[in-house]
Specification:
Strand content: under 5%
Structural class: mainly alpha
Strand order of the largest sheet: 1-2
Shape: globular
Number of helices: 8
Number of strands: 2
Helix content: 55-70%
Distance between the termini: 57 Å
Number of domains: 1
Amino acid sequence: MSTEKEPYPIIFSPDNEPYLGRKLLFHLDQLISSCMEQNAIVAPRTRGATLTDHQKMACQVIPQSISIALSIRELVRQAYLFGANVLLRPLAERAAILLYLQEFPEEIKKWNRGWRHRDAPGLAKMFEAIGSKTPGHDGIRGHELTDSMNSILHGRPDSAIWSLVQVDDKHLGQAPSKIVNRPDLCDEVCANTIPWLALIQGMMCAYFPDR
């Protein structure tokens, strides 16, 4: 267990957050701003409109996805990098639902029934189904794409690397709090968040085209 001291602020602000200036973090911030601007345009069009079942689903899943991405960003700001990593799977799952139901529109009936376990496909199955519609990716193995996310979410032994910190010159430990000295881990979180958020932004256009 780590005994790492905390000589840093209890709460970081945008002008002193520990990973400020990282290139991938900057790109994530730009994408978040773009996504919020687009949502501000799309959301008013859905109010009082006659929506399809797919659009009703998207009205729930897209805002949830953006909220999770914002939560990841705030956790990065506060240097809770392990917690940010834990949220990657729910973000990926919502992005996959949006893409899956776009590619397989008949499956919306499962969403309307509650998207229940053993009825709706799991994340790995959705990846495989989506891959089957992508040229050159029909042999994709979904469990290989979800394995690391599941490891972090469920606390498997191999998830230890995501909370590892240098305690002193000779010792490593598991961080119970902020991780302020792992820029590589910050970059990893941002690199894994950006594609899902970009996909969600694309799904806004797909489900609510500007007509």
